[in-house]
């Protein structure tokens, strides 16, 4: 019995979701920036790849201080990316191809260009408009020191001082990310109502689900005295329910209200939380009364190593069984170093996804062939697991991180706010190569907003489509097979004599074997359905996965 039926309310449980970073996917009008008509033109590609849904990173009007995660208008399309009509055409084309559509919602902060923030600046101290954000007086004699010592995610203080309407230096506002991303005050009813309006706006337009950005940050306790930065930290997976801004229990009230909105629709709209919280506190985000699903990022920070993968898989399957949600498997996204590159790093440098620690120079040490072999093996392993798998654009080409983007072309606020000490995330956001030749490798008719290296030619869609052994063709075959083989959300581990092998069986006799070591190992009897690397002698080579029956 095939349980995955995209026509039902449960379509998301074992869906393969393909993340599109719209500005870097496909450019229809030659301005160097990917756009919605570009996505529409590639729907046949997505259909042939065999994905069940696409998730679009933000495509809303934005000053692009943070790649679109600084939203100036939540219910519109950035004119550089198209119009609402283009959105409807894209949505219709995806749906006609049987592909669901998920959009990104960024509720923790707006852009500083958002009309609310502009109104807050104009209205001045003590106003209702300022209360929609977190404005405070500064410390020190003239209020010229920030209210506290908290730091922001992209480097530098989490506070920025504004000029008051009369031109004098004035209050400070909180921004946990870039200074162009002021944090909203989620105690306000109008903030809550406006986001519910946004969820209905896109649901009414036929959007099937939402990815919720920084879902654990919305509620804050900013009463004084403030805890010092050394105590509150940043990005640590806190167990403290009284943490001033991360993972406070009240945040779930917001999502319970959103669940009611999602359930107004048939089928109910889905949601997945981006919540970097302690694993024991992920359940309420994923529960059916909450957002319904939450990303598990454990594999992003794991080594390419059998026992670590097994532990992570076991834990996550247990956790999703407790909440009734399904697991989410991710190896790459727009925030981390591409996994083909991570896995090519020498042992010791780590295969974890901290893009911000991978300085440009480390790229000289990447063994690209080993990285790609491991990436193919790991992806096949993920695709055999119960639950849903999130793929990031370009990984189906085995694409590597671009390490040598010149400083003058960098866009990530991390690069600027750390004065280049951390290169940031541009290397995984370089526009995709569609053809082996031509301007911007077929991305558009002219340039690309981030420079593409010459080696992109070898990874182009058209080149890989013609190569039976390419990563693209492996993904296509794997997704088609998964569609046929996917059954109930359970697995049974198979013990293998080699400690470097991770093997399991799904109902119906679908077996997956991954060899994390470098030496070939024996395989049991059976029919080989698909292999990430060819093996002439019927053994499983190192850094490889096979599916058997
Ligand atoms: C999330 C996004 C990231 C963005 C940040 C701030 O972590 O994935 O790209 O920079 O939120 O919105």
UniProtKB/TrEMBL annotation:
Signal peptide: none annotated. GO terms for biological process: oligosaccharide catabolic process. It comes from the Bacteria. The keyword Glycoprotein applies. The keyword S-adenosyl-L-methionine does not apply. Keywords: Glycoprotein. SMART domains: Aamy. Residues 19-429 form the Glycosyl hydrolase family 13 catalytic domain. InterPro entries: GH, GH13_cat_dom, O16G_dom_2. GO terms for molecular function: alpha-amylase activity; isomerase activity. It holds the Pfam family Alpha-amylase. Belongs to the glycosyl hydrolase 13 family. This is Alpha-amylase. It comes from Tsukamurella pseudospumae. The lineage of its organism: Bacteria, Bacillati, Actinomycetota, Actinomycetes, Mycobacteriales.
